Amino acid sequence: MIPEDLNNKNKGFKVPDDYFRDFEDDLLSRARLKDSLPDDEGFKVNPAYWDRFEKELFEKIESKKSGRVISLYKILGPVAAAVIVIVMTVYFTRNDNFPSAQDAVASGNETESSLESDYLDFIPYSLLFEDIDAQDLEELSLTKELVDEDAILDYLYDNTDIYNVVSFENLNEN
Amino acid sequence: MEAQELVNELQDKRTQEAAFRKLVQLYKERLYWHIRRIVLDHHDTDDVLQNTFIKVYTNINGFRGESSIYSWMYRIATNEAISFLNAQARKNNITNEELKSQKIKNLRADVYFEGDEIQYKLQEALAQLPEKQLLVFNMRYYDEMKYEDISRILHTSVGALKASYHHAAKKIEEYLKNTD
Lengths: 174, 180
Hints:
The complex is a heterodimer of chains A (174) and B (180).
Chain A: H1 4-7, H2 19-36, H3 49-93, H4 101-120, H5 134-142, H6 149-159
Chain B: H1 3-11, H2 16-39, H3 42-59, H4 69-91, H5 96-107, H6 117-127, H7 131-142, H8 147-154, H9 158-178
Helix pairs in contact in B: 1-2, 2-3, 2-4, 3-4, 4-8, 5-6, 6-9, 7-9
């Protein structure tokens, strides 16, 4: 005799709660929509677009990558030079057997200028003249609103690399 | 290729470039249509799609594999499309609703839209929907995604998504019936 449990052929399989009710609702809703909605939405794309898209995308990524090298170098170059100068200055001023502090600073300056000259090769020429002077600072301090809120939001939208999650819970549900 | 294998290759500097090319080839069209249904215009879609893939590329090491790579990209694309519309409305100093109706009007003259009157009305009907209902409707009706997947992308419960979908479907049906 077959055990009672095995008589139920679906034994062991499970479906999510309310699956069959939802299935019917979904099917009917889809069938009604199929009747009233057009099959095609009317949007068009030039077939050549897909190849062009990939080409442009990889060009953008390449330029972004090279942009990063420059900006990292811009930051690290002067920092590295400054650290070398400080470390050498402290070290040599504490040890009389070694060259004087002036020598060390001179040597540090040499390192700095060598790093600087390398890093300057990466900087666009126009940026070399963008030092802020006292007058610029005064003008800045007189400006009440440096950047408006929209400009900040636009900047963040265009430049944020880290993927920020939009909270969909806050979207209008009406 | 297994999705996990592709993710591993994407996170490995030596294989990243080739894997990313595969990823773009695999998903560009699906993501394109998802974005296009939100922003409507081809050129805007192109911008958003490029930004989406650039974000995927720059953040791939932060992908923790809790969802499928497709769901993750889909989520980025959705965010990018919505942020793009918000930025456009801000730039033009108009509300999002005004922007939507402007975009619908522009479809009449859009060389990349060759819809007839019923297709145009469908876009009008979709534009009436609140953002969330529009997203749910597109994902469920056009992309035929499971509610569970939509739930992971939109961080909303399956029950709430079902309600949103049915509200949206009803509104669209009614709009099309009443404007016949």
